[in-house]
Design brief:
alpha+beta; 2 domains; five-stranded mixed beta sheet; 1 helix
Length: about 150
């Protein structure tokens, strides 16, 4: 009885050590820092139209960034049309971050800041999302982008 109990303990110890070793090896051999995110942007346009196509037939009201990873940079193309009666200068602002912490790790920019746009003109714009390599506490995010045309 004592031998079978000792044998059982040895088998259990070997099983526990083997499982621990496999978990440790998997962690070392397959390191991963991917953070799955579902990001959405609500777009509010003031004095301009924002579209997903050059023909300005499909209004763009949100962008789904999908899954992003630390250290990545993602771009989306959109088209801005001056729908007013005077020339405008384009401006973009970002606010209402959810969670607030996301603004410390995500940067949003575009390539049309300060661009003049004549009446009825369309400009192709790239909006870029850059994810900090050190992000770790953000699993989902959202923010608002406002595109404005100033006279």
């Amino acid at each position: 009885m004592a031998i079978s109990r000792a044998s059982s303990l040895i088998v259990i110890m070997v099983a526990v050590l083997g499982t621990s070793s496999m978990v440790l090896a998997a962690t070392v051999l397959f390191p991963s820092r991917t953070i799955m995110n579902q990001g959405n942007i609500e777009i509010d346009a003031v004095g301009v139209g924002v579209y997903s196509d050059y023909g300005c037939e499909r209004a763009l009201s949100s962008i789904d960034w999908g899954f992003v990873e630390p250290g990545s940079s993602n771009e989306v193309v959109m088209y801005i049309r001056n729908e007013g009666s005077v020339s405008i200068t384009l401006n973009m602002s970002v606010d209402d971050w959810e969670p607030d912490l996301a603004s410390d790790h995500l940067t949003v920019s575009w390539d049309r800041e300060g661009t003049e746009l004549g009446v009825g003109s369309v400009a192709r714009a790239r909006i870029t999302l850059v994810v900090d390599t050190a992000v770790s506490d953000v699993t989902n995010f959202s923010f608002d982008v406002t595109v404005t045309g100033f006279e």
